[in-house]
Amino acid sequence: MATLKDVAKLADVDVSTVSRALNNTSYVHPETKARILAAVKELSYTPNVLAQGLRQGKRHTIGVLVPRLHMTVFAATTQGIEEEARKRGYATMICNTEDDAKIERESLNRLRNGFVDGIIITGTGRNSRIIRDIRTSGLAVTQIMRKQIENISSVTVDYEACGYEAVKYLAGKGCREIGLINGSMKLSPYKGRYDGYQRALKELGFSETCAVSESSVHSLEYGYQCAMELLAQNPELDAIMAATDIQGIGAMRALKESAVKVPDEIRVISLTGDIISGMLETSMTSLEMPAHEMGVKAAAMTIEEIEAPADHKPTPQHLVFSSELVERESG
Amino acid sequence: MATLKDVAKLADVDVSTVSRALNNTSYVHPETKARILAAVKELSYTPNVLAQGLRQGKRHTIGVLVPRLHMTVFAATTQGIEEEARKRGYATMICNTEDDAKIERESLNRLRNGFVDGIIITGTGRNSRIIRDIRTSGLAVTQIMRKQIENISSVTVDYEACGYEAVKYLAGKGCREIGLINGSMKLSPYKGRYDGYQRALKELGFSETCAVSESSVHSLEYGYQCAMELLAQNPELDAIMAATDIQGIGAMRALKESAVKVPDEIRVISLTGDIISGMLETSMTSLEMPAHEMGVKAAAMTIEEIEAPADHKPTPQHLVFSSELVERESG
DNA sequence: CTGAAAGCGCTTACAG
DNA sequence: CTGAAAGCGCTTACAG
Predict the structure, then answer these.
(1) pLDDT tens digits, residue range A150-200?
(2) What interhelical angle do A101-112 and A128-136 show, nearest 10?
């Protein structure tokens, strides 16, 4: 691999001149520059980003921590992050945490030192101290989907409104026994949806039916098993709200196997509408969240924070999107 | 951020001693070591990986280039790669290329210099020269899903067999007019599937019905539109083979909207079975590929190549998995 | 307009 | 057992 030194030697100038020529950081005589460019080409030189980063204290890279990519909304947010980051000259480093605090901690420790200028995280909620430390040490940090630390920027959805609106919508369709498939109440999106669900139920005088399962919350099985449980719990059930599309798909499968008609007997609605909802055999009514755009915004916020001068860092921003109810066949 | 120097000063030793103590690279007096560890703790020191990388010429990071994550099999392979890499102490850097040669080129150029020790790629096929260069310059490179460069390791599936087997299976069910939804023939997986499809058709004396669409090949719309086209092309159509699950889902939606019964009137089968196939309302018969395991293997191969001594680099390996036909409701 | 020098934070022969 | 020094590949004041 050719280095600056090689180029300098071939072009018969000092390395500093090469550096200046390549970075356009001060005027270089056109002839000299031409010689340098020729040498660069001949040696097919490309700068060592590691050395640049070390020297400049910047890597133009942001780390992204997500619980999972496969069949989750995070694939969409991550893609938004990637696109926006690339547009602004940043690379992304994606790490799966599996929602495991230990894996998350390892990734954070790896990222914090030298790898990245900023971090976008959908956290487990159990490494808040480290994340605050990282922020304090000067890295930009943005929370996406889950807001767990007050004074750190975030991009989220109004989950409470989602839960509330879904119940109201279903009630408007005549449903009275509405089941909820949800995730850990320790995580703000699930907690928020539950709160909204409960608030609406209270207003309507309905009673709650909730299910949890042992499976990974991001799995089809989770939705399947929870739906089965809801069915067992409440024979009068006439609607199911699923926290995610994947859960909703699993639930619809469970209903089909139980010979329950959707939406005639039980309506199904997803609270994290992703593009797939519209293409299912029975297309799924859902509260669509702008996952891709959320990723774009999170990347933009992070990079702006990175690039702000140290004495002018923006104060934490909290961007809250709202979901839009899209009516389809299932509900 | 504390540095080695800070630790050394606090522990009252030379930086080299700190380095040795931390890396267990030579005996350090227990008392000295204790002092150092205490200082590390007090300053909550973590090494700067950039500097380590620059010095050691190793980053313990592998780059992963995929066409897309959202709703593709690459989310599964990538997760396999991540897991295996983490297990072996490597981080991963994931880059989406959108199957765009220009984006791919940019990412490759960014990665090649200092960022990573190795690359795992599902390529566009249009940057083979750069990839070969990268390989020659000493980075480990592994192709996954698409094999486009002969003398570089790969992990793929026997796509030809997939296409062949699917036709034979459908013929066994009595189908005679089998349509294929496929992708660019310039990419080995699609080419392979087509070849297998054609070989089987020839053996059986069937004629071909193929569809392509303007949409992104990794989209639900693609499957939807292609299915509509197949229907229009061939009124006798009694089966559809879709290259991917997502296409298959889109196709089933198209059939439903066209009031065609699956599987009674038309059977549907996916050639890239992912976990979702089994959970659909009409579960989808598919040729399941071990996507996660393929990722694991690709990571293992890459890391083994990275860690092999320079004079003992393994020769390129080509790992070919076979798909397994799983019969479900759609076909 | 360009060169010489220092330094980013580490590791690793080389001494002792 | 530990220190002093060189060096990984760059950038950037400082001179001139």
Answers:
(1) 999 999 999 999 999 999 999 999 999 999 999 999 999 999 999 999 999
(2) 10
Mean pLDDT score, B203-218: 91
- Give the Cα separation of A62 and B85 in Å (integer): 19
**Residues listed for chain A:** 331
Q: Is residue B223 part of a domain?
A: yes
Same domain for A152 and A8: no
- Name every chain A residue with its beta carbon within 8 A of the beta carbon of B106: 86
- The region, left, alpha or beta by phi > 0 then psi within -120 to 50, assigned to residue A306 is alpha
Closest chain A CA to residue B81: A96
Does residue A329 lie in a domain region? no
Please tell me whether any atom of strand C lies within 7 Å of the Cβ of A49.
no
* Statement: residue A144 has pLDDT above 80: yes
Shared domain for B186 and B265, answered yes or no, is: yes
Say if CB A180 and CB A174 are below 8 A apart. no
Q: Which nucleotides of D are covered by protein (CB under 7 A)?
A: 1-5, 7-13
Report whether pLDDT(B197) > 80.
yes
Mean pLDDT across A119-124: 96
pLDDT in tens, B297-315: 999 999 999 888 777 888 9
Query: Number of residue pairs across A and B with CB atoms under 8 Å?
Result: 139
- Residue A114 (CA) to nucleotide C8 (C1'), in angstroms, measures 11
Nucleotides of C under 7 A from a protein CB: 1-5, 7-13
